[in-house]
Structure formats: structure tokens, C-alpha cells
């Protein structure tokens, strides 16, 4: 005991930052400490260590959760009294199937009913559809999150008609039934209804909800169209806030006040793979939004942001899809640490097809484990006070504010989209991402690194065209209904007229038809939606098609020089390099003579060979192999694994070597070149 007591009294000197730097530079063998710095896609420099000095000038660090700025959260008690909503998006092939799925998932931990109408899987055309969807579901027990896309009028009218029929009070509904026309414009490139008309609807719906559905938000601002186009964190925030300001101004012009419109806006952000950056993004979002609403004269309460988060579609893969469970878990962890109010976790098969019961359960349970087993909700702002996170939060907020101001100077988000500024900004970062993925500087496990060519693909049941038939059967319009709707809309009574007509069996299509105007709507270049893994997935699909057609994958052959320790590292590198494109790699045993190497190569009857060994072993044997192999067959391609000194490379090329493959090589472009030479159809 006395020894333990003595140990407790011991203290150790606290090293200074300079002392630490000196030790680091020793381990770097004379290289400067700054060698450890890195730069993000946001052009933010990340240091290897942060100290109290980094946050001394940051005013928000001294704030408490629940107080303006709101960096540390909009509620003083965080998740302790009210955890985030488990808000898994649900789709199906029909209203009755959707109803069954929702009931099943609500019984197993889901706490919010989440629909994205564009991805629902069937059209919601009538009150009958709404009745079938919500039959047996108590809307007073669960909040709704309805992403209605371009406009929410038709869905809200049908829902209101259903509530009237069921004698359910409007004010018992809570959640979000929101529209985001600018987000749809950025994603699709055009709108069938003029923005001015959509803003009229937005303002009218917002006024009506304030009087009749006080618990429902009516505007959604999505960051996903930018994130899924390849945008960085700063761009996603800036473009989202510019969109929100566009909606604020439109509603102010139509008679609302800032304290009526700001609380009606619900943001939705994608959560990517850069863990700390995504935490900082959500924390920075609260600060920037508070400043924006304050600038409009909004109250402290109106400055509180409402944020939904969804784990990134952009980061998910078709191949090795079960790894997506791990990706989604890390992203969900970041979202909850960052303080999202609700969360959708991507099912692991999201990039392949519609989720089934198993993938929905795993996604839902990811959230429940974070809540019930990891106890994330038990700590208020767990990232608060971290020197790194607080500094990063301030940097993201500052850069997002600068870009937001640039957009404002250009006339707002719509003008910036029309001028192509937003698209150019996103494309610039997207190209950086693509190049880094192609060069394998950005690693995607199971795709461009550690590909498993033996994996069995996830099988999805084929979807029938029942929905298409229903859509066609519902397309006939009652011209009298459309005329009555247009008359009411002409009197600037959008939601009132739409509900009145929905009760009288008007359809969603008729409401939408009445909204359309003869005048041309805005049109812009759409932001292409893609996933980071797509370049290599295309190569894998081409290889598989080649296998099916010709009975073998496109193949490279390795000529391994010397003993196993001599060639293994480079042979393993080359194997992983080409398997990323779905190519087969045939390895030789260690070869000690050029004659043996050439003999085995000729017998293998391949087209592309790569010599693997140490630099020392290459000196004499590589030129000898190259000369003899090219004499035997001048059409074969011969490469050397590893970067060589310029003079060595020159001598090898003169001997017949066609190129060199090393860590700096563009993996994607190299594989494309090989496949083209092998006759692989890359467009199949």
C-alpha cells in the first residue's frame, strides 16, 4: 500500500510544445515538423497537434450548450432528455407494403416516419393512397419527415384531407413536410413550375402551417445535391445557407416576418467519411445560421437551427458492400457527436437497390447501438473543448461564411447556379477527389484497395413495373378539377384551395398541373450526382463482362525475381493494384535467371508482364529479360514494378521495357490502358 501511495504522489514534468517538436523532428530524421501538416479538400491545413493556444482567440469555446451562437447545441441538455430521432427513410412498391414496413420498423426502434417522395417507390396520387399508407399508424405518436421535393402542396393537401376524414386534429401532427425547389434545381437542372410560383406556395403553406399545424416545419434545405456531386464541407454549408437565405427573402417579400420563416426551415446535411470534419461541419452550421438569422433581425429562438443528417450515399460502394456497414457507423457516430436532431443511416445495399428487411434492420440498429449501448446521448456536446475540433469548427465556419458572402455578391444562389459558379466550384473539388481515388491516394477499402474478386454479389429481387402502370393509369386529369384549382390559385389561395379540392377527390397530378404556368421556368446545368467508387466499379463490371464472354478475366502475369523476401512486397502491391480493376494476376515462383523468366513467360502465353523484385536484383536481369522477351514476341508488354532513377529507367526502356508501375502511378488510367490493349470493352 505504501508503494501505491508513493506512486500517487509522483509527478512528471510537462513537456513544452517546443520540446515535443524537437523530439518529433528527431524521429523524422531532420525533416521539418511541418512535414506532418496536411491539407483538406476545404483548403484547411491540419496540424498534427493542437494545444490551448489554438483556441484562446475563439469566442465560441466559452459558450455553454443552449445559448446563442449555439455551436455547442441548441438545447442546454443536449440529447439527455430528448435523443435524436431515428429517422430511417422507407420506400416500398405500394402504399400497403409501405404501411406494413413502417409498422414493423416503428415497433423495432424507429422513432420518426421518413419519406422522400421522389424515392418512395410509388406515386402518392390520392387520399386513398394516404389512407392506405397511414392506416393503423397513430400520427400523434410519431413525428413525420416528408421531403416533398420541388413542392409540398399536393402531398400536404392530400394529408390534410385524410386528417379531416379521420377527424384527426391538424395540430396533432408534428415534424417536417417540406419543399426544396432550389435543391431540386441544382440536382436536376430544371423545374416545370416557375420559381416565383413555388415561392408563392412556400409562403402560403408556411402561413397556413403556423395557424393550423404549429408543430410542422414547411421548408427543407438539402446539402446532399452538392455533397453527392463531390463538394467539400465548406461548399455544402455555404450553398445550403445561400438557399435558405433565398427562401427567407422570398417569404419576406410575401408578407412573412423573419421569426415566422426561420423556425420553419429544416436543414439536411450528408455526413461523409472525414470524421472530425463532419463533426465540425454540424457545429459550424449552428454558428453560421445563428449569425444569418440574427442579421435578418431574428430572435434568439429563431436563430436555432434544425438539422437532419444522413450518412453519405457518395461514400458507399457496390463491391464489398458489407464494408458499407462500417462506413455508415463511423458517419452516424460523427452525426450524433456533431449534434444532429434526426438521423438516417444508409442501408449497406443503398448503392445496389432498394433496402430489404435485413439491411434496414442493420442500419436502424446502428443508431440504436450508438444510443443504447455506446451511450452517446449521455454526454452533452462530447466534442466540446477539444482543441482540434474547436479549431476546425471555427475554420469551417469562417470559410463557409466567406463562400456564402461570395454567392450573395453574385446575386444569390439561383443567379450563381445560372452563371455556373456553383457547378464550377463543385466540379473543381470533384475532379480532385476523382484523381485521388484513381491514384489511390484516397483509399476505398474493397474497391481500389483490398478488392476481393471472389466475393459473391448481393442479390436483389427484380422490381416489377406495377408502379409504372399505376403512374400511367393515374395520369388522366379531370380538367374541371384543374380549372377550379387554377381559379383558387389565381386568387392566391394555394393551400386552402388544394385541401378543398383534395377532399373532393382531386389528385396530386391535378394539383401539380394547376400550378404549372405557361411562362418558362429556370434552367441550369445540373450538378452530376455520383459516388466516389464509380470509376473502379466500372472497371470491375467491364472485367466481369469480359469473363462471362470469354471465360477469363483480363490477366497480367508477374515475373518474380529471386527469393520470396526479394519480390513479395512489390508482387503484393502489383496484385492489389490490378485487382482493383477486376483483373486476374498470375504469379510466378522466384526466378533467378533471365532465360528461365523468358521461358516461363512464353509458356504462359500472356500479353502483359510485370517484373517484381528489389532494385538491386533489377540491374542485370531486367535488360536481359526485356531484350529476350521482345525478340521472342514483339507484341507483349513488359513493365517493371517500382520507380527507378531516371538513368536506370532510360536504360531499361532502351532494352525494351514499356513502363514502370509504382505508388505514384495512376491506378485507374493504367488499368484502362491495359484493358484497351487487351481488347476489353469498357463500355459494356
Automatic annotation (TrEMBL):
It comes from the Bacteria. It comes from Parageobacillus toebii NBRC 107807. Residues 40-117, 120-517 form the Methylmalonyl-CoA mutase alpha/beta chain catalytic domain. One of its GO terms (biological process) is propionate metabolic process, methylmalonyl pathway. It holds the Pfam family MM_CoA_mutase. Keywords: Cobalamin, Cobalt, Isomerase. Its cofactor is adenosylcob(III)alamin. Its EC number is 5.4.99.2. PANTHER family: METHYLMALONYL-COA MUTASE, MITOCHONDRIAL, METHYLMALONYL-COA MUTASE, MITOCHONDRIAL-RELATED. One of its GO terms (cellular component) is cytoplasm. Transmembrane segments: none annotated. Coiled coil: none annotated. SUPFAM superfamilies: Cobalamin (vitamin B12)-binding domain, Cobalamin (vitamin B12)-dependent enzymes. This is methylmalonyl-CoA mutase. InterPro entries: Cbl-dep_enz_cat, Cobalamin-bd_sf, MeMalonylCoA_mutase_a/b_cat, MeMalonylCoA_mutase_a/b_site. GO terms for molecular function: cobalamin binding; metal ion binding; methylmalonyl-CoA mutase activity. It is an enzyme of class 5 (isomerase). Belongs to the methylmalonyl-CoA mutase family.
Amino acid at each position: 500500500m505504501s508503494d501505491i501511495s508513493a506512486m500517487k504522489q509522483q509527478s512528471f514534468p510537462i513537456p513544452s510544445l517546443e520540446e515535443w517538436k524537437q523530439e518529433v523532428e528527431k524521429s523524422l530524421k531532420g525533416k521539418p515538423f511541418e512535414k506532418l501538416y496536411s491539407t483538406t479538400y476545404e483548403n484547411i491545413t491540419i496540424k498534427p497537434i493542437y494545444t490551448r493556444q489554438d483556441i484562446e482567440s475563439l469566442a465560441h469555446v466559452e459558450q455553454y450548450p443552449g445559448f446563442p451562437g449555439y455551436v455547442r447545441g441548441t438545447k442546454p441538455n443536449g440529447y439527455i432528455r430528448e435523443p435524436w430521432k431515428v429517422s430511417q427513410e422507407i420506400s416500398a412498391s405500394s402504399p400497403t407494403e409501405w404501411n406494413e414496413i413502417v409498422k414493423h420498423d416503428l415497433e423495432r426502434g424507429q422513432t420518426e416516419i421518413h419519406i422522400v417522395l421522389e424515392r418512395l417507390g410509388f406515386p402518392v396520387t390520392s387520399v386513398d393512397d394516404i389512407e392506405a399508407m397511414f392506416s393503423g399508424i397513430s400520427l400523434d405518436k410519431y413525428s413525420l419527415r416528408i421531403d416533398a421535393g420541388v413542392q409540398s402542396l399536393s402531398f400536404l393537401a392530400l394529408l390534410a384531407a385524410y386528417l379531416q376524414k379521420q377527424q384527426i386534429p391538424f395540430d396533432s401532427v408534428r415534424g417536417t413536410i417540406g419543399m426544396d425547389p432550389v435543391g431540386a434545381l441544382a440536382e436536376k437542372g430544371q423545374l416545370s413550375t416557375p420559381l416565383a410560383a413555388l415561392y408563392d406556395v412556400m409562403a402560403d403553406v408556411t402561413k397556413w402551417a403556423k395557424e393550423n399545424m404549429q408543430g410542422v416545419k414547411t421548408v427543407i434545405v438539402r446539402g446532399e445535391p452538392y455533397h453527392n456531386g463531390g463538394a467539400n464541407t465548406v461548399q455544402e454549408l455555404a450553398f445550403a445557407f445561400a438557399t435558405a437565405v433565398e427562401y427567407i427573402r422570398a417569404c419576406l417579400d410575401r408578407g412573412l416576418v423573419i421569426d415566422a420563416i426561420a423556425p420553419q426551415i429544416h436543414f439536411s446535411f450528408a455526413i461523409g467519411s472525414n470524421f472530425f470534419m463532419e463533426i465540425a461541419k454540424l457545429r459550424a452550421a449552428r454558428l453560421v445560421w445563428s449569425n444569418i438569422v440574427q442579421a435578418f433581425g431574428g430572435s434568439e429562438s429563431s436563430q436555432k437551427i434544425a438539422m437532419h443528417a444522413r450518412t453519405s450515399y457518395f461514400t458507399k460502394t457496390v463491391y464489398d458492400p458489407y464494408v458499407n456497414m462500417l462506413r455508415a457507423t463511423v458517419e452516424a457516430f460523427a452525426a450524433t457527436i456533431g449534434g444532429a436532431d434526426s438521423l438516417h443511416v444508409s442501408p449497406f445495399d443503398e448503392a445496389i437497390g432498394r433496402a430489404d428487411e435485413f439491411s434496414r434492420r442493420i442500419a436502424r440498429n446502428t443508431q440504436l447501438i450508438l444510443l443504447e449501448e455506446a451511450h452517446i446521448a449521455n454526454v452533452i456536446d462530447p466534442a466540446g473543448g477539444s482543441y482540434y475540433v474547436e479549431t476546425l469548427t471555427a475554420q469551417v465556419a469562417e470559410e463557409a461564411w466567406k463562400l456564402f458572402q461570395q454567392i450573395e455578391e453574385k446575386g444569390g444562389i439561383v443567379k450563381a447556379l445560372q452563371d455556373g459558379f456553383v457547378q464550377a466550384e463543385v466540379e473543381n473539388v470533384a475532379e480532385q477527389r476523382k484523381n485521388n481515388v484513381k491514384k489511390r491516394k484516397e483509399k476505398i477499402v474493397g474497391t481500389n484497395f483490398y478488392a476481393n474478386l471472389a466475393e459473391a454479389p448481393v442479390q436483389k429481387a427484380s422490381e416489377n413495373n406495377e408502379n409504372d402502370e399505376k403512374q400511367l393509369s393515374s395520369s388522366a386529369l379531370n380538367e374541371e378539377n384543374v380549372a377550379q384549382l387554377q381559379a383558387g390559385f389565381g386568387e392566391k389561395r394555394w393551400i386552402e384551395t388544394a385541401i378543398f379540392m383534395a377532399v373532393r377527390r382531386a389528385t396530386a397530378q391535378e394539383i401539380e398541373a394547376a400550378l404549372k404556368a405557361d411562362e418558362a421556368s429556370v434552367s441550369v446545368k445540373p450538378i452530376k450526382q455520383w459516388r466516389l467508387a464509380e470509376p473502379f466499379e466500372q472497371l470491375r463490371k467491364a472485367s466481369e463482362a469480359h469473363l462471362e464472354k470469354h471465360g477469363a478475366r483480363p490477366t497480367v502475369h508477374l515475373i518474380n525475381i529471386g527469393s520470396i523476401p526479394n519480390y513479395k512486397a512489390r508482387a503484393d502491391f502489383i496484385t492489389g493494384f490490378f485487382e482493383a480493376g477486376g483483373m486476374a494476376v498470375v504469379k510466378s515462383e522466384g526466378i533467378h535467371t533471365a532465360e528461365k523468366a523468358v521461358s516461363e513467360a512464353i509458356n504462359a502465353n500472356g500479353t502483359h508482364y510485370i517484373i517484381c523484385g528489389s532494385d538491386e536484383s533489377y540491374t542485370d536481369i531486367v535488360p536481359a529479360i526485356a531484350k529476350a522477351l521482345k525478340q521472342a514476341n514483339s507484341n507483349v508488354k513488359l513493365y517493371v514494378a517500382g520507380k527507378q532513377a531516371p538513368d536506370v529507367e532510360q536504360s531499361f526502356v532502351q532494352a525494351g521495357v514499356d513502363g514502370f508501375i509504382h505508388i505514384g502511378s495512376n491506378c485507374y488510367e493504367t488499368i484502362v490502358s491495359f484493358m484497351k490493349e487487351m481488347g476489353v470493352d469498357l463500355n459494356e
